[in-house]
User: Fold these one by one.
Assistant:
Number 1:
Amino acid sequence: MSDNNLVISVDAMGGDNSPRVVVEGINIAHKNNKDINFLLFGDEVKVNAELKRFPQLKHCCTVVHTNEFVHNEDKPSQVIRNKNTSMYMAIDAVRQGNAMAVVSAGNTGALMAISKMILKTMHRLHRPAICTNIPHKDGMCVMLDLGANTECNAVNLAEFAIIGNILARHTLGIERPRIALLNIGAEEMKGRDEIHQAAKMIRNTHLDLNFIGYIEPHQIGEGYADVIVSDGFTGNIALKTMEGTAKLVARMLKKTIKHSIMAKIGLPFLLPVLWGMKKTMDPRKYNGAMFVGLNGLSVKSHGGTDALGFSYAVDNAAKLIRQNFVQTIREEVEHVDLDELSQEMLYDVY
Amino acid sequence: MSDNNLVISVDAMGGDNSPRVVVEGINIAHKNNKDINFLLFGDEVKVNAELKRFPQLKHCCTVVHTNEFVHNEDKPSQVIRNKNTSMYMAIDAVRQGNAMAVVSAGNTGALMAISKMILKTMHRLHRPAICTNIPHKDGMCVMLDLGANTECNAVNLAEFAIIGNILARHTLGIERPRIALLNIGAEEMKGRDEIHQAAKMIRNTHLDLNFIGYIEPHQIGEGYADVIVSDGFTGNIALKTMEGTAKLVARMLKKTIKHSIMAKIGLPFLLPVLWGMKKTMDPRKYNGAMFVGLNGLSVKSHGGTDALGFSYAVDNAAKLIRQNFVQTIREEVEHVDLDELSQEMLYDVY
């Protein structure tokens, strides 16, 4: 595939302050990805008004009009069959082959439900997952599921371990990723049944996975594992707790410095360091969660992000297209005997 | 109750590096609580060897010998009926009226199981919970359950809301605590079924609770709620994620400063501030999780804490004894129509 033909479809009406933030984000992403063409789905009057501010985007953006949108408060079941929403049409462009990935900052539940319905879950997999890379003290690790599946059984978790293994190898370049199940204790009997069963399954498969057992949340930052597997509820709780805690610490530091004259004297010397750290930990840099396990590339941007954050989601989609991400996962999953996992589960039940 | 009679029973063999850390912790706690007598259960040779280092503890510590102990890797079911362990005997001292609270840094699952069996769950409650106070940007909030109940139904969660309400009023002095259920979204349909049902129950009871709906983990630090309610698995995940993230941020700051000459110049000016912040956020200060909903006071210290951390757990137990904590909860729960909650649940099912 030539890099000259990259096309990304964008739900221009998704997220807070759309389409302004979306178009500004595309403009930032365009600077680093001159080879990408964008298909923008949304209210053409509004989208064109934003595009006018960036003449350099004229040749690479095509606007497709729609006057229906998915709102944040819409239930996925309400909007899933509405083929006229910007979100639906943007995803459908991937199915039709008009785009190689879709990016949306809209309603996560709806994006997952529509992506699943249109792009379909990959052959041999039971459930797709939402996945992202997060930083730890020595680098990055892959975390999944982050919210696609509120409840998961052991087979789902074991499948996520397999998908996570592929992701860590291909997106982080780790040869033999250490895979762990997120749990509330290291001991065999701690936590929920489905986690125990999943551990057993992963150990019992003939896959050559580097499974290291359970990881507790406070160990994630220590870099003990390269792939952190959990159900979507737990993963979402952990991810949002990280976000909130990092913010709280930064806020407390600011507040304490503000009240100390001594600290104010020393602060200018530390500013470059603090700025550098803020940059390293900037959640916008990690924006662009991947929906993995679908026959097409769907990338979710944080709904409340700004233009820079949205541009990172686009960058991420472009990177995954260039890595031939979907095809790579499909090929690896084809060689994995996932039925073995289900059998394992049946033995356990009967 | 005269303050001259406070007795706390201690599982001297619980936690890493026991009984050394335990005895050193008691010595620190003793300085601020001269009125407390301690009943120490454990290997008398080892415990007395440690006590010898602190002659000032001689008059306030009584050692009761036992040569059996609960280990960290013991399953609660294996040890629950062994009446000769230091943990069992320390808890039983509360039932017998020889102590007003028990403190242990041992196996959490075993401590909860034995406490529950010996002290019994309070009349009208279905399940006890593990609870602690955590900091947010403007103060503190109460969080429960933190690990006693891996799975919870809606009634359990609603009961925790009621207990949390009492706790926030009495331990934090908040007149009308804002109560929230921990969830992965603010919208009505987000998250798990039992959470939706619990929200409905809490709203429908005739209790005058200040229920504000769902809270997402990144909002905890913002101080949106005074009581955060979740099942024990989710609460444990969130708490340990906070711990890990705070540590990661501190570690990254340290590392970045180390590599910058400028930062090293400014650092001395900021040291008092950084030390102050480290002190504020020191997890040892928040050590001593309460088991609430039992007919007796059982306090869990972190297993890996040091003497200072253990002393905070003892301090906390002493504070709760002085507040007549168990009796207060019992009286309030007696006036709460918890059966109403169960009825609500039945209506929902049938």
Number 2:
Amino acid sequence: MRSLHFTADSSSNGIRERDFTVGGVPGVLWSPASGADRAPLVLMGHGGGHHKKHPAMAGRAQRLVTGCGFHVAVLDAPGHGDRPRSAHDEREIAALRTAQAAGEPEGPVVVRYNARLAETAVPEWQAALDALQELPEIGADGPVGYVGIGLGTAIGVPLVAAEPRITAAVYTCTWPDVLIEKAQQITVPIEFALQWDDERVPREAGLALFDAFASQEKTLHANAGKHLEMPRFEADSAVRFFARHLGGAAVSPA
Amino acid sequence: MRSLHFTADSSSNGIRERDFTVGGVPGVLWSPASGADRAPLVLMGHGGGHHKKHPAMAGRAQRLVTGCGFHVAVLDAPGHGDRPRSAHDEREIAALRTAQAAGEPEGPVVVRYNARLAETAVPEWQAALDALQELPEIGADGPVGYVGIGLGTAIGVPLVAAEPRITAAVYTCTWPDVLIEKAQQITVPIEFALQWDDERVPREAGLALFDAFASQEKTLHANAGKHLEMPRFEADSAVRFFARHLGGAAVSPA
């Protein structure tokens, strides 16, 4: 089994930030600076073209760490952040740019590219979770949640379907095509957010993905607005969702 | 203009409860027992067959009064609670029971009955709001919200369409048939909750009603489960919605 290799360690505003690698994959672990007792862990998968410390990740982590006292870990997805792009990555990104420039649907490119990234990323996440649970402040039997944004949903649906240690998940919408079958295997509580006027992912496709989850407790949050206009209060809602399902003393987020 | 006529006044657990009538319509006003400064007002419309102090109303009021320091007012709908049933009420209720006993769709009866109740209730609510705003602890220019449950939505959609003093509204799902046109006139922020597996109101009908609101800010909350299984955290979500839109120092609800 591969261990975490810490490469940087700093604290500010009550949050300890540790960079690490595990099996060569770079990640970040955010924790309460107070060095609290054992606490739940939330894994977060960043969006396409983003990276482990993108503000959307750092902002959500800040809420989870200071609001709930949780640990939050993010990995760079394959070909993203500090990881090199393969020739395949470069070809797919070029195909995406070509489709976008021509005003053609980007879905077909994104779906097949994200599916390929997920094949690599799911075992990476499982190895990272093994290593994170070796840390005494996380532990092998503590609650684990998952947050996925876009690409992080394309990775996170097969991950949660395969990984019984993850007991609650928050997703934002992505193309459902290859995910429906995996979503049908998921039974843990789900909070799923989509944009009602999404100009990229068709509304019916998002509703179909939500419908596919087999979870007895699942909640859809649909907000008026386009793909990138998700309101910030959805990040606060995710904090309350994890406070309910992973335990921990939730503080009202600022 | 008709004034409020208070008929009972008591306090417990930090909440002052005053029964009143206005133009012969019975209502209840819940307020902070501390007798605070001027505070926002939330009007609530109860569900069909329920009444102004049904636990669904009292529970939501408790959260809004103790969590936000707001005032909350509920009126008995026509033919409900302490109000007499007309011959028309009796006929429609008998028709509903007959449809239910025969396993026939109840929608056609409920839609026409609720529409008739709304015609009476909307001007009653407007007169009650006039009178409530005469109270110094509410005032004529303070923020006003509306919560509707079932029948309370059938009354509340035409009410909010007609009443510019109401600047934010929370609805639960009901049959949209006669409400679509009024919903298209509503532009204030909306939170709209439906049950994904509702056995009474078809899913597509609920989504169509949400779609009809012209509001720039609107959020759909769809939860797994049947008509009567809406999770309690939706009541907490409504409190946060009003804290955002009506101002006031929101406290994390218990």
